[in-house]
Each structure stands twice: as C-alpha cells, then as structure tokens.
Amino acid sequence: MSLVQGRQSFEEILTDQLDGLKSAVLAAHGSVLEDLQLRVQGGCCETPMIHELRETREQRVPRERLSVEEEEELLQRGPQELMILMDSAPGKFMEETLSPGPVDRWYDLYMHLRSKSRRPPVAEPSQLTILEPWTAKFSFKALQKGLSRPMFKRRPSLTLGDTMLDKRWLFRKITLTPHGNARLAWTFFGLLAICWDLIFIPLQMFDINAEVDNLINVVSVAIFVYWVLDVPATFITGFDRAGILEMRIHEIARNYAKGWLGLDVTVLVLDVMIFVVLSFNTESESGSNDSMGSFRLARALRLMRFLRLLRLHKMANLAAEILDRFKTDSFLLTMNILRSLAAVLALNHYMSCAFLGLALFAAEGELTWIEIAELQHMDFLTQYFSALHWSLTQFMPATNNIAPNTAPERIYAIFVVLIGLAVFSSFVSGVTNTVNQLRQIHTEHFKQESRMKSFLTQKSVSVDVWCRVQKFCRLRILLDKMSLKEGDIPMLQDLPHGLRVKLHAEIYMPILVSANWMPSDVTEIDEELMLKLCDKVLLEKVASPMQEIFLERGECPEVVIPTAVPRQSLIYWSSRLKDYVRVEEGTWLCELSLWARWEYRGQLDTEEVSHYVVIPTQEFALAVTKAGGSLFQLIRTIGLLYIAKAESQDANCDGIPLTDLPLLSESDAQDVTDRAKRFGQLRLSPRKASNASLGGLFGGRRSSFNAA
C-alpha cells in the first residue's frame, strides 16, 4: 500500500514538472524566434535546444523500460531529491528515469510546434516616409520672390529691445555697448575712484604726515587722468532710451551734452586749477618765509577738492550696472544690506571728521573733547577713530566715554543725534524689508517643509527615515531651482515681441546653428527665418534624475539636443548596439525626424538633472515650408540626401546600425550640405543648367552628365 502511495506521489510530481517544462518550452520558443530574426534564414538553422535534443536522441543507446527493482530504488529517493534532480539536469533526469518514448515525443512535439508557427520575417531595410510639408510643391516664382526678400527689413516703428546702429562702419566698430565687459571693467574702476575720493577728500583737512600726503597726491593725479579719459569714453558708449538701445554717435553725444557733460567738465577744470595752484605754491614755499600763509592756502585749495564729490551722482548708476550682472536674488538682497551699511559708515566718516575738526581748529584757550579725553598728544589715527566711535554711538544705542564740551561741539552733537535718529530708523527698516524679501523667496518651500515635519512627527517615524526624508526634501528644493524653464516665469510672457525675439535668439541660435548639416552662412541666407525658428519652434525642457527622455520603438515627434549635461549623465541604450553610449552636450538626436516619420531606435536616460532643447518636427517643417526661399530648398535637399543615406545604411546589415545618434560625422555632413548647395544653384539658374554637371554635384564625372 505504501508502494502505491509513493508511486502516485511520484507521478504527480512528474506530471507537474512536465507541465512546467512544456510551458517553459513554449515560452522559450517565442523568445528564440525574436533573437534569431537576423540569423535564421528560412528556418534551416537549429537552436541550441534543438541541437541538444537531436544529439541526445541520436547518441542515446536504446534500452528497455526500467525493471521493478530499479523503479523501487528510484521511488525511494523521495520527492524533494527528485525535484532537485529535475531542476538541475532535466535531460539527465528524463534519460535515467523515463523510457525512450517520452523523450522522442517531446522532441517531435517541439519540432511540430516550431514548424506550425509563423516563420520569422527576413530583415529588410526600413522605408522612411517623408513628412507632408516637405512634399509640397514650390514654384520657381515663389523661390525668386523669397530670394528677393531683403535681409534687414526695417519696420516702420520701433519696439522695445531694438538697437539703433550708426550707418558709418567706423563708428559702429568703436561704439561700446553699455552692458559689455569692457564697459563693466571701466565702470568698476570709476566706482573705486569715487570711493577713494569719498574716503580721503575729508582727511585732507588735516595734516597727517608727509607720506600720506604724497600718496593722496599721486592717487589724485591717477584719478584725474581716469576722469579725463572718461569723457571721450562716455561719448562712444551707448545708452538705453525707453527700452531701445541707442548706439549712434550723434545721439550719444546729444544725450551726454544734455546730461552730465557740463558738470564733468567743470570738475575737471577745477582739478586742473588745483594742480596748477598747488604746484606754484610748492615752488614759492622754498623762497618765502610766510610758511603759515602758504599752509593755509594749500589747505583751502585741498578743500576745493570736495567739489569732486559732485560725481557721487554716478555712484548709484555705476553700482546698479555692476549689480545687474549678478543673477541670484539672495546675493542681490545681501548686497543691498551691505550697501545700506556702507552708506551709514560713509555718513559717520564725515560726521567724525567734522567732530575732529571742531576740536583741532578750535580757538586757543578752549577746552575741547580731545583735551578732556587726554588725546591731544596721540597720533592722528587714534584721534580719528575716537571721533568715529563717538559718531557711531550717536547713530546706534551704544555708550562712549567721549562727550562734547564747548558750545560748537554741543550744537554739533545735537545735530548729529537728530540725523542719527532718522538714519538709524531708515537703516533698520531697510534691513528688515530685505530680510522679509529673503524669506518670501523661500516661503512656499518653508510651508511644505513644515507640513512634512508635522506629518512625520504625527506618524512617529524613526530617526533614520526622518533624516532621509529631510535630505530628499532639501534636494528637491535645489532641483526646483536648477530646473527653471521659461514657462515657469510668467513675467517673460509679457515681454515685447522684439525683445522676446532677441532673448530667444541669444538662447537658441547657437544651438540651432550647431547642427553638422547646417551651413555656416545660414544667417546670411535667411536671418528672418532663423529668428522665427528660435522664437516659435525651439523649446527648452528639463529632465529629472533617473528619468527616461524617450523609449525605444515609440513615435518620435521631436529632435532632442542636450544643452546642460553634468558629468555626461545622459546614457543612450539601443538593442542595435553592443554597449551604451554617453551622450555629450550639443549632440543632435533623432535628426532624421526633421524630414521623415521616425520611431525611436533606442532609449535615452539621465542620471542627473539635465537640460535639453527640443525641435518639434511638424512645427519646424511647417515654418520652413511657409517661409520658402533658398533656405527652404537647401534644407529640403539636405533632408532628401540624409534619408537616402539612412536607407542605404539601414540596408547594409554588416555596417554601422541606424540609431537615433547622429547619422554623419561633421565632415560628411558638410559634404552633404555642399552638394545640396550646388544642386540649389542649378535650380536657381535653369538656363545655365546645361553648363552645370550633375556628375560633379553627386561625385561623378562631368562627362556622365554631358552624355546624359
């Protein structure tokens, strides 16, 4: 009875294993057919599985069924041992345990299923279908009309963002843009010159020492030379007038003459007078005994240098021009705080110099604050910093052991306290507003982080999970800042059309002309069409880490051009390639989709935040076709040559597989472009077509065309 039960258990196990083997064979059949599409020709090749079964069948020595003793020995092994033997070596298991009949039947069943199944199709070269806009007819008259379109067509009225250039070539070359790097460096030196005058001009009231006086005189001469050169530099620097960049010399001169030209010339004339008088005064001191009179005259002339401070009106504009170069809101707000603090320090610098002057130039016999503080025998720096400390305490809630004593000093102290009250209140309110602006920038992120912390606290998560979630949230905030697109900024949608076109041209034009097949003089052929493509067609997108940009066998509606790829984080996979490919910035992927219907032949993944530009193929084709002209003919001819090259490459099974990567190298693409240009010249001159050579156009002999 136990033998029967064991035999039934064995049969059940064997039945289950054979059923699983059958399912595995049928499933492997489908995968084998897919893998052998390029190798199997007409079903004559054997797979490794068929080969193994056939050799087993041919080499196996026929034998009789197992005896009763052998079956009993086999059944005593146990189901677990039999299952292990079945999983590790199914062929050996069937060979040792079954009669020849089941093996033959399984072989016949597999061959029967394979013969009844659909034969794998032979690989054929793909036929690319040209997009409909490129197949539209274009008459010769329309082509000539497109060619006669002026390159620089002036609009009847100006819009924001336009640039007014001078008609004379020399003036266009020497004119500087107000936001250029050269003008920025010149502006920076001007800002340093104003800061020097702001600090050292009030110190010239005092007799510090000979070395400091010589240093001030040398730097004053250098600053004078700078401001002399600044006058002609301003005459050749453009300016913004109601959003229009004015670069015409006569308009620049007219604007400067109506503005600060008179004040700049007046200050320069005063500087020249001061230098001349001081030089004569220095020569007369050697032969004159009235040293006190000469000293007073020199001091009075130095005080006239306070007129240089009239240039402070330029300081705000110069600082604004420099700060416009910085694009981080947090940095700009921090600079605003530092600028307010610098203004308070500058005001206290002048207040302290005036307070020190009241004590040093007081009448004889008056007990000043310097004598009370016992500083009359100290050096100038100690006296100056003591006065500066007193001035700062009047602006802020602080203490000081220095107090005014004479009537002029007390009157001045009352005036400083009133000024300090207003300035300190304004400074505190400005800093508070700036800090609030910094907080408002991150308000939404703070709200989300606070709600996340509350949620984690309510759920009583572990410390490890808490820290990991916190790290992810901070990383997500950083990614949001790095993934800004034009659509995320509503203010850009309100830009005037002309200014928006210029913005898009600066962003997308270098990308558009970077194609290997794009002619180098494309902007000269049709600049208007190129600007339209940059403004209306090209789009920017951002891919998050571990995101698939496109998948294999999907329909391709756009060309993908990576623009910002950190550490080559874009990876391209394809079943046609043996290994993956790291995609570099500026690579045009799926460029054949510009002219023909295309399916992705690989997969593009990104490991980090990557920015890329896409060119929708239908919009590109419609825009180029609608514009017409020679550029349309050139791009269409290039597309036809590209399609022919792609079909030829796809038909060659032994060559490079056709994928989404660039079809041609840069040199080969330029050769295709040159051939397309020569073909376009033949179409533009139909009367001279007989003198041209299609053989030379497509690499053949001239005689071949004449014979045709």
TrEMBL record:
Bilayer topology annotation: Multi-pass membrane protein
Entry keywords, A to Z: Membrane, Transmembrane, Transmembrane helix
UniProt KW Membrane keyword: yes
SUPFAM superfamilies assigned: Voltage-gated potassium channels (SSF81324)
Domain Ion transport: 185-440
Subcellular localization(s) per the UniProt record: Membrane
Domain of life: Eukaryota
Pfam family, one: Ion_trans
Membrane-spanning segments: 184-203, 215-239, 260-280, 411-431
Keyword Membrane set for record: yes
InterPro entries: Ion_trans_dom, K/Na_HCN_channel
Name used for this protein in its record: Ion transport domain-containing protein
